[in-house]
Every structure is written in C-alpha cells, then in structure tokens.
Amino acid sequence: MFTFGSTVIGAPEEDTALSLLPAHSLLLKGRGYEGVYLSALGSFGAVILSLLLLYPIRFALIEPISLYSILRRIMPWVLIAISIIMITTEKAKIDLFNVKNTKIKSILGLLMAAFVFILSGVFGIILNKINVCSPIGLPAPILFPTLAGLFGMPTLIHSYITKPKIPEQIVEKPVIREKAKTLISIITGSLAGILVSIIPGITSATGTVIAMTARGETDKKQTLITLSAVNTACAFFVTAVLFMILRPRSGAAIAVNELIMVNKWNNLFIPPLNLLFLTMAMLISATISFNVTIFLGKKFAEKFTEIPYQKIIKGTMSFLTILVILFTGVEGLLIFIIATFIGLIPVNWGVRRSHCMGVLLIPIILALL
User: Fold this and answer.
1) Who has the most CB within 10 Å: 84, 123, 186, 338?
2) Predicted structure pTM score
3) Residue 111 structural domain
4) What is the arithmetic mean of pLDDT over 263-285?
5) For 202, phi and psi rounded to 5 degrees?
6) Is 350 a member of any domain?
C-alpha cells in the first residue's frame, strides 16, 4: 500500500504537479494525509475485489475458457495497441515558441509523448546488449539503474531544485462524498491491475491510464484511488497468475517461484495449497497495513513541517546512487545517469512519465513480432 513517504518524497512545485504523482498535488494543498487515506482505501478495496475475482479470472485465463492462449498469439498487437493508447491519451499542452493555438499545443504534447516513448525504447534496445556486474558480488539486474533513473531520480532532482513550499498539513479523516465514483475507481483500477499482471511490459501507471481513459475520469482523487487499486490488484494477481500460467510477471513473483513449490492450478475449484496460504497472508497483511498506513500517515502529517525536507531529498538521492554503484558498478552508474536525463524530459515538459515504459515495451514488441 501507499505510505506517506511515497506522497511527500519528491514533491514537485505546483506548476508541474500534474506530470508527477496525484498525491503530490494534494500535498501541495496541505492535504497529504488525505492522499495517504485515499491510497490506502483504494488498495484495501482492491484486495477485497481481487479475492472476489480470483475464481472468475482463473476460469477465464486457463481452463475452461483459455483466454491466455489467445492472448499469447496476439500479444505483440495488444502491446502495440496499449502503446498507442498511452501516447494518444496524453493531455499535456506544450507551450513552445510562444504558440497560442490550443490544438497545436496539444499536438506538441502528443509529439513529446511519442518522442519520450521512442527514445526510451531505443534506450531499452541498446540495454539488451549491455551487461553489468556488481563490484562486490551482488546480483546485478540491469533494470535497477534503468528504472531508478527513468522514474526515481528525476522526481527527486526536480523537487530538490524547485524547492516546493509545502504547507502545514490538514490532519482530519477525509469524508468520501462520491462513494459511487470511488467504487468505480476501485473496480476499474483492480481490473486494470489484473491486466497489468498478465501482460508483460506494462506497469501500474499504464494500467491507470487505461482505466481512467476507459471511464473518462480526470479527478486527481479518483486517479489516486485508481492508481492504488491498480498497484495492489497487480501485486495480488502476479502471484495468483503465477499458479495459473507458471510465468512470473514481477520480481516478487520470481521470488515466490524460487522460494516455494509452484504447482499449476489444474483443479477447477480447489487452488494449490501454497496459493491458498499466500492468499490468506495477503488478506491479513492488507488488513493490518491499511490501519498502520493511516496511523503512520497521520503522525507524519502532524510532524511533517518539522522535517528537514531538502536534506531528506538529498540523502535519498545519495542513497539511490550508492545502491546503483554497489549493485551494478560503473556501467550501471552510466546507465543510471543516461536514464535520469531521459526521465527528466517528461518531468520538465509536463507529459506523463509512463511514456518512459517504452524502455520495456518496444524491445518486447520487437522480440514478439
């Protein structure tokens, strides 16, 4: 689930908040705790819905419907369609060369989104030919410096440079007035999260774009709930799907695959025992973390103005850089730096950072074609 840290670390200035996390825009209005609460609500709702959808997804994905077999045959075209949706739904309006025409600004936004996507994809293709190694013998995943550079460091750098003025936070339990919209956000987010858990190369951010586009919703609060639901449903189903198709779709699923016996869910009604245990553990942890997240979020919000924000940002950047060096060495550091420059493009121009997922999507599409 989202924590208060994911809301406050890397907060942008107000003018660029739309290109970063929706929670950050709430933080800049003194409603960071509300962002934490909505995130926790979306996540917990997604866990409950995921449990309810476990059997229907199993029936649809493998026997008797065997939808996954169909998806595998058309996977590159599905990924191409998702990529097109990501780019064409970009809402940023770029003011370049003092252009006043709104349509031209929108077109420039689409072109910038396409540029970021293609640039990231070319970067991903190049990375396929590069090997990294840890100077101290640690595992050296090349995606670590890549994704840390594309998504982590740019936000921190931008926040450190702009020095946003974060007001004192309002600490009171938010009132959910639009309950129907909230429920729809949880449902659409969960369904998108399930999609993310099945299809390779797409992330929760992409799933959120698809969900919000499908329902035509742009409200920041609903976006935040949807994003949390996508993340949580994806985390739930990457584990469940592992027992259905025997293909890990995330680092967590890979760890599960290596740590325990993963048997395919062949019986229509009785899941494998290990999946049953994991499902129970996820339900218990979700219940606990929902309450802990809200409690800690409230405490952080009360004391946040006393925290040396810039020092935390600086320390986080230093820590991230050290980790990159320890895990991937000098080569990884170079990848990290290049990825950071690419990741700064959407932050500075106000387009969605999810376009940087071209780093995975384009190589996967080319490999599948």
Assistant:
1) 186
2) 0.83
3) 4-132+176-308+360-368
4) 91
5) -110, 155
6) no
The DSSP line for 306-337 is GS-HHHHHHHHHHHHHHHHHHHHHHHHHHHHH
Q: How many residues does the chain have?
A: 369
CB 178 within 8 A of CB 224: no
Six-digit token string for 307: 């925290």
How many domains, in total, are found in the chain? 1
In this structure, the number of other CB atoms found within 10 A of the CB of residue 209 comes to 25
Distance CA 189, CA 212 (A): 8
Q: Specify if 58 maps to a domain.
A: yes
Which letter, b or e, does each residue of 58-81 get, where b requires 16 or more Cβ atoms within 10 Å of its Cβ?
A: bebbbeeeeebeeeeeebeebbbe
13 pLDDT above the threshold of 50 = no
Closest CA to 369 of 79, 124, 123, 88: 79
Q: In this model, does residue 12 exceed pLDDT 50?
A: no
Of 31, 350, 317, residue with least CA distance to 148: 317
pLDDT in tens, 71-100: 989 999 999 999 999 899 888 888 877 777
Query: Is the Cβ–Cβ distance between 259 and 277 less than 8 Å?
Result: no
Q: Can you tell me whether residue 64 is helix, strand or coil?
A: coil
| 166 domain residue, yes or no | no
One DSSP character per residue, 177-200 reads --HHHHHHHHHHHHHHHHHHHHST
CB 105 within 8 A of CB 95: yes
- 46: which 2 tokens? 């997604």
Is residue 97 a part of any domain in this protein? yes
Q: Which two tokens stand for residue 333?
A: 């550091």
Q: CA 290 to CA 37: how far, in whole Å?
A: 9
Q: Assess whether pLDDT exceeds 70 at residue 1.
A: no
Query: With 90 as the cut, is the pLDDT of residue 298 above it?
Result: no
